[in-house]
């Protein structure tokens, strides 16, 4: 225990917090979970506020996986020998559990195991049958792994269109969305991609967009990586064609397994530009022919990470034991308190310390908060300096643009003209530091904190106390 645990300020703040957020008491089992499965946080004095970057695993998850590894002989699943058959059984069990967790019917959806959400998105991008006249539509607010799909569609003559996210709340207007959805050409291939939750602003974009777009001729790719760690994605209610996610974002371990969850008709629409071991049934060198495998196997290149995939099964068990609704409720309470407390911080001259990028309220937003700190004259403080000072206090947060340049450009007010000028003057390469210097006297990054499965009030309180040191 540290001095902060017993400080009068912390205790008083916690009492006020509980009065304002009485639902927090309903999540007390998470405190027991933290003491049991995440005791390393307090033992080492860590304030972990980077759940959007990566989730944390519980000790019991690791114990179960280690017991399985010690007691099981794993064989490469591309066989029917006894050890291979046992491995295949464990992989199938995990596939079924993933579908069940997301309430996805096996008659409607299949699971493709990938290395992470980025590989799942790349699979769609490289395999989607873009052609001349086709359309790729996406919001400004997207991870770079989604933005990168534009390189595939442009190479085949398709058109890329972006829908802006409007500051300060960083939401997309209905008018802009409807105009963009009208671009679909009947009979052509039209792909619409958006995140269920922004990894930049925490905005939760309406899942109603899925059906709205499909009715106008779009296939829908949903990036669920930032959404599913604290929210239930029910695929019996929502029916995106493709869903990309990383399991380490949900429960920390294993870090090398993600998934593409795809509707069977949408999966059949994809055509791989190459083949590999495991993705075909037969291949010949002399005949120069091959036949692709059916279903998920056609997209799982080489040998699956078969010793780690069963750990996904244990991770899902872990989340189900804790209760996703309980995690969401706690995250909701802590996020609300952080937003109120941070926006109340003012310099002596009345100017706000915190500039928020995203909604200031809890409606349709997740537990990700992105901000910059301003001095009393209104100048933005260097986010890299803030990260360095946070590190000294063992506060894990993240700074930069978080691989989401579109949201960052809109939030920070960077114009197309100044960005083009930067890229045109950069030559053949540009580092992030070069980019920062290119924007004359402007901040090109922000500070991001995020709440997750093991968060408690002391974590939130510690960040607010850290922010107070920057007051005049």
Describe it.
With 472 residues, the chain is an alpha/beta fold. It has 2 domains: 3-58 and 323-401 and 445-468, Aspartate Aminotransferase, domain 1; 72-320, Type I PLP-dependent aspartate aminotransferase-like (Major domain) (Aspartate Aminotransferase, domain 2). It is 40% helix and 14% strand. The protein contains 19 helices and 15 strands. The strands form 4 sheets. It has a 7-stranded mixed beta sheet, with helices on both faces. Helix 4 (59-71) runs antiparallel to helix 13, helix 5 runs parallel beside helix 13 and helix 14 (324-343) packs parallel to helix 19. The model has no long low-confidence stretch (mean pLDDT 94).
């Amino acid at each position: 225990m540290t001095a902060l645990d017993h400080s009068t300020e912390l205790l008083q703040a916690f009492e006020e917090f509980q009065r304002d957020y009485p639902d927090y008491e309903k999540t007390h089992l998470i405190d027991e979970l933290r003491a049991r499965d995440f005791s390393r946080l307090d033992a080492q004095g860590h304030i972990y506020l980077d759940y959007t970057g990566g989730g944390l695993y519980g000790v019991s998850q690791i114990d179960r996986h280690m017991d399985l590894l010690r007691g099981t002989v794993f064989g490469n699943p591309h066989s029917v020998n006894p050890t291979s058959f046992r491995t295949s059984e464990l992989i199938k069990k995990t596939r079924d559990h993933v579908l069940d967790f997301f309430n996805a019917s096996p008659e409607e959806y299949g699971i493709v195991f990938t290395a992470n959400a980025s590989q799942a998105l790349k699979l769609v991008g490289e395999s989607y049958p873009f052609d001349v006249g086709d359309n790729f539509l996406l919001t400004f607010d997207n991870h770079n792994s989604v933005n990168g799909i534009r390189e595939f569609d442009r190479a085949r003559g398709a058109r890329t269109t972006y829908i802006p996210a409007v500051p300060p709340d960083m939401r997309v207007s209905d008018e802009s969305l409807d105009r963009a959805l009208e671009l679909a050409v009947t009979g052509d291939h039209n792909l619409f991609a958006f995140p269920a939750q922004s990894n930049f602003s925490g905005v939760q974009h309406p899942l109603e967009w899925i059906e709205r777009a499909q009715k106008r001729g779009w296939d829908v790719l949903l990036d669920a990586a930032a959404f599913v760690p604290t929210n239930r994605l029910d695929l019996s209610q929502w029916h995106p064609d493709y869903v990309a996610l990383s399991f380490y974002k949900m429960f920390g371990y294993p870090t090398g397994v993600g998934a593409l969850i795809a509707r069977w008709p949408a999966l059949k629409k994809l055509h791989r530009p190459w083949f590999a071991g495991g993705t075909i049934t037969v291949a010949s060198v002399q005949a120069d022919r091959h036949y692709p495998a059916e279903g998920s196997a056609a997209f799982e290149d080489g040998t699956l990470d078969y010793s780690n995939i069963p750990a996904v099964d244990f991770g899902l068990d872990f989340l189900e034991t804790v209760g996703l609704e309980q995690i969401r409720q706690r995250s909701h309470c802590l996020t609300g308190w952080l937003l109120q407390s941070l926006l109340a911080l003012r310099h002596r001259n009345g100017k706000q310390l915190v500039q928020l990028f995203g909604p200031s309220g809890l409606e349709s937003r997740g537990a990700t908060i992105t901000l910059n700190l301003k001095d009393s004259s209104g100048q933005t403080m260097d986010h890299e300096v803030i990260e360095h000072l946070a590190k000294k206090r063992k506060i894990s947060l993240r700074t930069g643009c978080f691989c989401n340049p579109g949201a960052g450009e809109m939030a920070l007010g960077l114009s197309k003209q100044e960005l083009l000028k930067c890229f045109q003057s950069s030559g053949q390469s540009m580092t992030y530091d070069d980019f920062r210097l290119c924007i004359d006297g402007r901040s090109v990054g922000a500070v991001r904190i995020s709440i997750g499965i093991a968060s408690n009030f002391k974590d939130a309180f510690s960040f607010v106390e850290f922010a107070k040191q920057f007051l005049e």
